[in-house]
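Question: I have long wanted to understand how a fold can be written as tokens. Here is the record:
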Amino acid sequence: CGMLLGLLALCLAGSAAFLRLDYCIIGAGPSGLQAAYFLQQAGRDYVVFERSHAPGSFFALYPRHRKLISINKRHTGKWNSEFNLRHDWNSLLSHDRRLLFRRYSRDFFPDADTMVRYLEDFASLLKLQVQYNTAIVHVTLEKDERAWNGHYFILTDQDRQNYKCSSLLVATGMWVPNVVNFPGSEYVEGYETVSINPEDFAGQTVLILGRGNSAFETAENILGVTNFIHMVSRSRVRLSWATHYVGDLRAINNGLLDTYQLKSLDGLLEGDLEDLAIIKDKKGKLHITLRFYLENRNISAGIDSITLPQDELDNFATRAPYDRVIRCLGWKFDFSIYNRSLRMMPGKGNTNKYPQIKPSYESRGTRGLFVLGTASHSVDFRKSAGGFIHGFRYTTRAVHRLLENRHHGVPWPSTVHPITQLTNSIIKRVNEASGLYQMFSVLADIVLLRENATVFEYLEEYPVGVLAELEIQTGRKASDGLFVIIMEYGRNFSGADKDVFYYNRAVGEAQHAWQSNFLHPVIYYYKRLPTEHEMRLRPPDWPLPRPHAVHHIVEDFLTDWTAPNAHILPLRRFLENCLSTDLRSFFAESCFLFAFTRQKLPPFCQQGYARMQGLVGSQGLRHHAVEAGLLEDFTLTDFLGDSRPDSHQGSQDQLLRDHTIPVRPLQHLVNTKEE
């Protein structure tokens, strides 16, 4: 066996040579590089296959007009790096502070060439194992019971070199243009090849097929030089600020909506593109008609022999001829390189451009094959950000953690805390966690209760779609109940037909938190782990099945959920009701009093004061607490009675100064110093 890139083992089997690896990644785009980073950090055997000479080849071509629509917010007023990633939609996750995108561009909407340079630096500075100029042209399975998943993946490149992989991570993205075939579609120019020089469209009339960001991006580029632009698609325009889905039309590209609604000749139409037909006249003009007009007619016979819609309806909307028709219908996944043995099937309905995968991002047809990045967007299509860098950088990390547990026995990362820290832990995460914020309704933090709910284990950013499999997928036990912390929009707030700017659209009072519209934290409580059956029967548009209890933290204009009365107090009381315990924090004097007056101390006193832990009190601190109403002004006379002689007043003052407790029988409960 020899070595390739320091990692590939060359194994000879008969006359065929195989380069054998644990993990093979197809594609060195953002998701492929992100997966490579996590594998490299874990010391795993992997390689990334990239057909181009450099990473990020998609961004070398697209978007055609070179302006990204992923925001690069360089300033937030905060220094918390995790919080700042909420507003950085371009950076990949790494330990290297040099690889933050704000160091590469000052533009709010950066240039695509900057993304190419960023990805090149990400691969080179982190020394990721990428094999360039290697196009994988065929993938098949080889059954072997000794393999991790019961089979190996056999990859073949353009030079007929074979690679044998235990696990396959597909990060090829979506790059095959969506094409609609209809009579005359040969006259249509594609977004991928059409000219981007506005002067080439001067004085022309243009029809654009499609209504996504690529269509409006193309229209925006030529808006000022054309006679007019018409845009046709089967669905109405969806504005991202109404749907809260970043893949819908963004404001940066919607100039044509102005010219349409303000009656400046441009316009939008709805219709099924497969019903259209295009006829070219002798002057080269393109006429739009309907397919059924061409039935039993010879299209090559000429336009004069063909009935056009305007012949029967003289105000037909597209009766004016066009100089150019441009197709801007987006992309789909390339299924062509996968052998039938892998059972890589398209999704159903509006996700048919994506491969079918589980909520764990593993293929439904083949164990050990995971789909990453844009191609994995079927899990949250039109719901969250899983099809974009600021979303799939977190789902890629989640897949890595699933693989670490499955193949290497490394449980999902977690931290363990006393139950008294539960409120603080949740508040901290909902205020700074970027994965929860970007992948709302898809990734969630999980709190697993332990030791009769006296401690808890905290797991971050777990895919809620596989909540029923949590114990298998993470290596953690969920036998004593759990909380699920997730971010959600209001149930009826998002949609293409919604008015998201209506009066009283925001909720400000904690008692109405369940009616919050904007993105806000929601905490689900389950006494036991939900089952697969319960997950399948969950209510429509619910990310989770019905819990035993649920709590909404009221939406906040600043997305700052730290208000003591509006945010923290209702959350703490919800947690207390679920756990039947007191989660408040107490001064040592209160804990000392509870030791005399209660059969059971609150957890804070049990885990702090009674174990000789906590903050040592002082006269000034006690006086401040009394003045603030945080502590009652108990004195020794409360216990000894007012009939005691005044001569004891001096001993009371001495007691407060020395902080000694002359009660020996209680030494097993309290410290001899006031904590």
User: Anything to note?
Assistant: The chain is about 25% helix and 20% strand. The domain at 185-329 is CATH 3.50.50.60 (FAD/NAD(P)-binding domain).
